[in-house]
Each structure stands twice: as C-alpha cells, then as structure tokens.
Amino acid sequence: MDLELRTGRVHVEVTGEGPAVLWIHGFPFTGESWKAQAQGIPGYKHVVPDLPGYGRSAPLADGGPLTMDVAADVCAQTLERLGIARATAVGLSMGGYVLFALVRRAPERVRACIFCDTKAGADSEDGKKGREKFAENVLKEGPGWAAAQLIPKLVVDPAGPVAKQLQAMIAAQPAASMAATQRGMAARPDSTPTMAQVAVPTLVICGGSDALIPPAESKKIVDGIQGASYAEIAGAAHVPNLEKPDAFNEAVKRFLAEHGRP
Ligand code: MLT
C-alpha cells in the first residue's frame, strides 16, 4: 500500500498476521530485498517499506539528502499510520544506521532490535569524501555504474544468482536517490553513545565473510548493548539474508520466538 507521509509518498508491503516486524533495507536496495524473510518467517506481521527514492516510494518532497533521521521518521510514521504501537525493528547496513536513529527518536516504537552487517561509528573524513565522490559519479554515470562498484563487495559469489538479483535491483534505482542517500549517510552522527540507550532485547547478525562492514564491527555492537546476542552466518558476505536465507531466518526466528511478542 501507499502512504502519504509528511516527506512524500511511501510504499510499504504489509504481509502476515501477528506481532509486527519492521524491515529496514540497506543501500541502494528496496524492500524487495527482504522477500525471503517476509515469506519465510510465519506468525508475524511483516512491515517492509521502500525508503524514500527507492522502489515504489517517491523521492523526498524537499529533494534534500536522505538523512538517517528522516528515514527513521518515515519508519516511525509508517508504524503509526498502520496502527502498530511497537515492532521488532531489523536494519541491514544503512538500515542499521536508520535503526540507531529510530532508537534515539522513537524508542517507544521499538520492541526489540536486530542489527545486520552494520556499525555504530560515523564516517571518517576520508569516508565522507568517498561518499561525495560516489554521489558525483553516480549522477554522471548512472545506476549501472553503482551496481558494478558495489556488487563485488556485497556477495561471496559475484557471478551467482544473488549478484544477478542485486544487479537488477540496483540498476533500477534512480541515481539521484543514491546521491541523496550517500550525502545523508555521510552526515550521520556517531551512534556509539546510542548503544547504551538500547534498552530492549537485541540480536546482532553478520555474514562471516563481510568485508564491507566486517564481523569486528558487529562485535562492537554486541559489546556495547547490554545483553545483546550474536549470530554469524557462514558462507555469506554483506547480505546474509539473501545469500543464506535459511540460516538467517533461523537466527531471526529463534530470537523472535523469545523476544518478538508482547
Ligand atoms: C549498505 O549496504 O547499506 C551500505 O554499504 C552502507 C554504507 O555505505 O555505509
């Protein structure tokens, strides 16, 4: 369904019945990247938005950078409009940055957290420059360029079916959205202090072969959030939900069975 929010139109897929799980996608994906989870984890209401500028969602009405705060507000408003008081919130990579912002801005909406292949720290100065360069290049070269840059870093097998699926997904996203998101990610604050604010059950998941945001970053989140547990997915890189959906879903199901219900 489509929701008209203050920031523009947002498309959200809502499937299943039960306690809510909110799935926040990574960069530069769409909610489609969570299909194997929405279909493979029964007993929950899966709420899967396309963030502004991706999939079937309109770009931000003000044309500005997609900051993690704005994306978190979109997630909180989506839950509110659907009449969902609280959800287990799952964020992969950029989705994890958004989840930290959601914890700061609307903690009352978060029943439990699942951080996947993400990190708490902000970008270094070099990292910020790299994002600006990416933004300029993608505006010049187009989304196919972005796909070619990213895919070798996202998956264990860059010639396999998951790579092909990502290639099609990334190539279909507007270059302007990717530029706006790189600028928004560069502006994100350090979420290290936020870890102490996470007062709900937390699971951290990471692909064992993730070189983009390696398991060491995930382990910092485990250490920073009281009581957090950790699941490493063997044979997967940055998108374990796509590369090893069965192992990923098992870890999520175990956690949800214990913490995902009122
Ligand atoms: C993502 O997968 O969402 C991005 O790699 C995150 C980032 O660029 O930091």
Secondary structure blueprint with pairings:
Elements: E1 2-5, E2 8-15, E3 20-24, H1 35-40, E4 45-49, H2 68-81, E5 87-92, H3 94-105, E6 110-116, H4 125-141, H5 143-154, H6 161-171, H7 175-186, E7 202-207, H8 215-224, E8 229-233, H9 240-243, H10 245-259
Parallel strand pairs: 3-4, 3-5, 5-6, 6-7, 7-8
Antiparallel strand pairs: 1-2, 2-4
Helix pairs in contact: 2-3, 4-5, 4-7, 5-6
This protein binds D-malate.
Features:
262 residues, alpha/beta, 8-stranded mixed β-sheet, 8 strands, binds D-malate
Compact summary:
The chain is α/β, with parallel strands linked by helices and 262 residues long. The chain contains ten helices and eight strands.
Explain this structure.
The chain has helices at about 35-40, 70-80, 95-105, 125-140, 145-155, 160-170, 175-185, 215-225, 240-245, 245-260; strands at about 1-5, 10-15, 20-25, 45-50, 85-90, 110-115, 200-205, 230-235. It has about 260 residues and is an alpha/beta fold. Helix 3 (about 95-105) links the parallel strand 5 (about 85-90) and strand 6. Helix 4 (about 125-140) crosses helix 5 (about 145-155) and helix 4 runs antiparallel to helix 7. The protein starts with a strand and ends with a helix. The mean pLDDT is about 95. Bound molecules: D-malate. D-malate binds near residues 27, 93, 94, 185 and 212.
